[in-house]
Amino acid sequence: MTTRTCRTLALGAVAAVGCLALAACGGGAPAGGGAPAPAPAKPAQPLKIAAVIKGLDNQFFQAMQKGIEDASAGGGVPTTVQAAASITDTTGQTDKLTGLAGQDYGCYVVNPITGTNLVQGIAQVTASGKPVVNIDRPVAPEAAEAAGLKIATYIGTDNLAAGRMAAAEITRMLPGGGKIAVVGGVTGDVTSGERIQGLISGVGPGIVVAQSVAANWERQEALTQATNVLTANPDLAAFFVANDDMGLGVARAVANAGKTAQVRVISVDGNPDALRAVKAGELTATVAQYPYAIGEMGVQACRAAAAGASLPAKVNAPIMLITKDNADQAIAAAPRPLGDYPNPFPALIGK
């Protein structure tokens, strides 16, 4: 064998060993010349929800918190709920959302105290591509547009419809017409204004609004205002009151005047104290809205959004008229609604 032939064989042996080494380390192409196998995908992170609501000093928002927590537990979705110190704590509520915005939550449920106090925090959340579900109090449309907010859906009471429901009951009770008075919340408040607008647009012929006053959502102030209204209008037939807390104050004024059998009082909310007052005959009726259902649907909407579903822009929460005839059933069902109601979100979860 020549020297040149030996050198060639030696080089071939080295090359063969090198190829075997590369194959053993996985550094070459797989057999057949295909592309390298892709790295395994990371598992999707489980959904976590953050909810920021109004103050728990009000029964309404206590029921909302329970709805959020029950829907969270039932759906197996961890949810952090933070509430403002009171229903007027706009700065504290803003700080809570800002503190949660940068954390690893996949969806946010927000219940603003005003139409604008959470705009900055919502903008921070939506800028990161995470969905925001707005419940109960809508973000002001002008503020949302100016900040470029993307709200996945809004869930809340149709306050015009609540006012019209009360109007239908007053019309039924006063077929011959009569004088009524209206007690609103804070002057200029959207919720109060819509309830009163629905009432006025819905009452039948012959029913006249003799006087309209504001009682700042406070029971004691409503008692004082109603006492004055009764003095000025001795032939008054009914009161429409924009929330239950004020409604209970008005009912006390009517009782103090010895007119519980003559002057009807219908309010809005359906809180536990009001339901008991309807059963006792102190309040004539309440148009119940259901914060429990609003909170529950808020969590369901987050789950649907996380599943990639397209959500409706607006969903009306249930409202139901509670009178002495169905007060016992309403108390037994509380805080859940009395009867079935439309809810689009369960069908969207998992799609």
From TrEMBL:
Signal sequence interval, chain numbering: 1-23
Pfam families documented for this protein: Peripla_BP_4 (PF13407)
Subcellular location: Cell envelope
Domain Periplasmic binding protein: 49-308
Keyword entries, A-Z: Signal
Domain of life: Bacteria
Matching InterPro entries: Peripla_BP_I, SBP_2_dom
Family: Belongs to the bacterial solute-binding protein 2 family.
UniProt-recorded name of the protein: Substrate-binding domain-containing protein
Lineage of producing organism: Bacteria, Bacillati, Actinomycetota, Actinomycetes, Pseudonocardiales
